[in-house]
Amino acid sequence: MTSLVEAPPAARRITWWRLLLRDRFACLAVVILVIVVAGAVVGPILLGDLAVKQNLRAVNRPPFSLDDGFAFVLGSDSLGRSLLARLIVASRTTLSVAIPAVVISLVVGSVWGMWAGYHRGWRENVSMRVADVILSFPSLLLAVVVLYVFSPSAGNIVLVLAIARIPVYLRAARAESAELQSRLFVDAARTFGTKSWAIIGRHVAPTVLPTLFTVATLDFCFVMLTESSLSFLGIGIQPPDMSWGLMVAQGRQVLQSAWWIAVFPGVAIVVTTVSATVLASWARLAMDPGQRWRLTLPRSRRKNSRPENTEVRA
User: Fold this and answer.
1) Tally of CB atoms within 10 A around 297
2) Residue 113 forms beta bridges with which residues?
């Protein structure tokens, strides 16, 4: 006795854009992330030197006042500089550290992991031991030690965080590839004489990448928080450069008299990381063919639900 489950035609034709529009929280997360990225790219060009321009007559101006113009709607810092302008300019530094670190670790770790998982044997054992050695040191502690020995700069932070996060993708890609390399379609490709890297690129990578993308989205939050923590500790981004973590560190000294200097950069960190986490949760469902149907249901019916209009024929 066999069973056939037929999904409704509308579910098969649904597009990524329509899936995104069905989830209002994912849409809001995308809007926030687009605004942050657009501000990081275009903001410093439009603002010019406003972020570093000092006005000692407007020191620690409170927020939500337009007396000095819209640029000071979030107040000013202890040197009279626009906090809004500094937030926008600092977003470029924060993202320029987080995004390259995630991309480097994603590319190196995923390629390495798929290669090790596909070939198994000594390649897999050596790769896992290397990953275990790196993971035995906490990422933040490793970054603190390395940056204390070498000069703290954006390039060094990217390199340290990228190396520290490679095992995360290596282990995920290795596990997925090891399971796929015994599948029938991979055996068929080997039977026809297809090269190993061609099999990995055509058959293994498309199945592994959705999982790695979800991990990368979550890892972006971790890397950005780590960079902010390093800047807060004084061994991350150094003045005159600015980042959200450095702004929080500078604002804690006047937290009682000018709370907005530290609070608004902290809110920017929280909102950005939460938005990336929400987007990762949506992408996990959207990229999984077995779970994608959940996004077509109303949010109140997504838990403990099955696809509608499903016929089971015996």
Assistant:
1) 15
2) none
pTM for the full predicted model? 0.78
CATH at residue 217: 1.10.3720.10
Terminal Cα-to-Cα distance of the chain (whole angstroms): 6
Crossing angle between the packed helical segments 121-135 and 154-180, to the nearest 10 degrees: 140
The CA distance from 225 to 243, in Å, is: 11
Q: Give residue 5's region: left, alpha or beta (phi > 0; psi -120 to 50).
A: beta
Task: Give CA–CA dist 239/218, Å, rounded.
Answer: 28
As a whole number of angstroms, the distance between CA 307 and CA 109 comes to 36
DSSP-derived secondary structure letter, 6:
E
Into how many domains does the chain fold?
1
d(CA 272, CA 23): 18
Domain coverage including residue 177: 4-313
Tens digits of residue pLDDT in 33-91: 999 999 999 988 888 888 888 888 878 888 887 777 788 888 888 888 889 999 999 99
> What CA–CA distances, in Å, run from 248 to 41, 62, 129?
22, 16, 38
- Rounded CA-CA distance 235/148 in Å is 7
The tokens describing 124, both together, are 């897999």
